[in-house]
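BACKBONE GEOMETRY TOKENS
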Amino acid sequence: MNRFNRLLTVILIIVVVGAIVAFGFWIFDIIKDKQEEDAIADLEKQFQNMIAEENTVANTIEVPLTNRVENQVTPNPNPQPGENNTQPGGGNGGNSGGNSGHSGNSNNNAIPLKYKGYDVIGWINIPKTNVSYPILSKSSLSSMDVAPGWVYGPTETPAVNVIGNTVIYGHNYHNSRFFSNNKKLNNGDYIYITGRNGEKVRYVIYNKYETSSVDFDYAIRKTENRREISLATCTDDGVSRLIIWAKEG
């Protein structure tokens, strides 16, 4: 009988210790998730502040002296062959330079924004699944643990909200993180993408399907000269890929 009681005591101790350890891990996960949520919220504020700051700078840049009226030269009405008939600033070349500068600001690469060591090129919001995450400039085994990332697009460098199909990949953690709840999305649901230039584009879902892990046709598909996105993630069993197509609208 004493041996039986001792055995019950040992079992009880093991159960209590196991419960304490499990409770500790649960609390740790809660704290970790809260810290992650706070970090994402703080990053989103930085993202919005960066956009506001760069737009302010772009709207207050002083006009160069060479473009001011008092410094312009009246073109020769009867130019001779080989005679330069451009205004200071290079005429078309000057305009091209000005447009190039504006384009640079549109890309908003002047102020770098990083999250856990990775470049941020945009922000994704999916109201139905309560998703709000930065979009990283790459999608690798390590970066996918941090946030959804750019995989493929019509531009040589990672960018969002451009003409063509942009592919964004995110992990499925079987919870509410990243693209875990993409399976709950349906045709007609909205996805919002905000770029570094502050432009927020609404995309409407029009196709959702599963495919093999080696299929990449969804990336190189035609978009009829319009802006589209493809969201990719693993299915719950990890065998296939869940793909969502959405177009601007």
Remarks:
- The longest helix spans residues 2-59.
